[in-house]
Amino acid sequence: MNETRINKYIALCGICSRREADTLIEAGRVFINGEKAELGSKVVEGDLVKIDDKEVKPEEKKVVAYYKPVGVTVTEADVHANITLSEAFHYPTRLTYAGRLDEDSEGLLLMTNDGELIHCMMHGSNNHEKEYIVEVDKAIVPIIFERMQAGLYLPDLDVTTKPCKITPINDTTFKIVLTQGLNRQIRRMCYECGLDVVSLKRIRVCNILLGDLKPNDYRELTAEEVDELYRSVFTINE
Asked: What's the CA gap between 147 and 154, in Å, rounded?
């Protein structure tokens, strides 16, 4: 009979990430068949798992493509945010963001109840592709694209970006495909090249496209999209 580590089981139930599950376990709030769970405890089919006094079971996996508007902060609670994601995004069951998008940016955000997907998208090797359309404040000379594509040193983060793909659209607009998720990476890269970002829209994550969604709209992914997404994300992060 297959065994599953308790933190992974809780993540599969859509409660929280594995790391957050470890915190619950350490706090003594997780029980398996009435016994307090420990880090590394395992469960099998038929075991009764509770957090505090509430039974938890794996949910049907849901993955939704959401168009996050400019001005929405990707957090569930923040007293300093004008609008939080939990206030802007409404779905019949609880979903959590798998990945981030800063407040001043817009576009595709994946929402899910699958803790394993969240874990891989947020804490994995971040080699999955994310594509953006970027408009800047002045005309871009070709050497800037060359610098960005080769990798830029970002002094405030003390890191050099991975090589990326760039496709010019016009003098001030381009598409960029990243395979890492540094904080405000595109804005920092543009700044290092003497450019300020006017608008930034994410249009793709792995195989999932923003498509015709309008700000604050969402759509459920097809089974085929989910299968391809999982193959891509979990293979990359193995």
From this structure: 12
pLDDT tens-digit map of 125-138: 568 899 999 999 99
Residue 124 tokens, joined: 């994995």
Catalytic residues, by residue number, are 102
Beta strands across the sheet bearing 30-32: 35-36, 30-32, 49-51, 54-55
* 20-47: pLDDT as tens digits: 899 999 999 999 999 999 999 999 988 9
Could you tell me which of 201, 224, 205 has the C-alpha nearest to residue 214? 201
pTM for this prediction: 0.78
115-123 vs 223-236: helix crossing angle, rounded to 10:
50
Q: Which domains does the chain have, with CATH numbers?
A: 4-55 (3.10.290.10), 63-125+210-236 (3.30.70.580), 130-205 (3.30.2350.10)
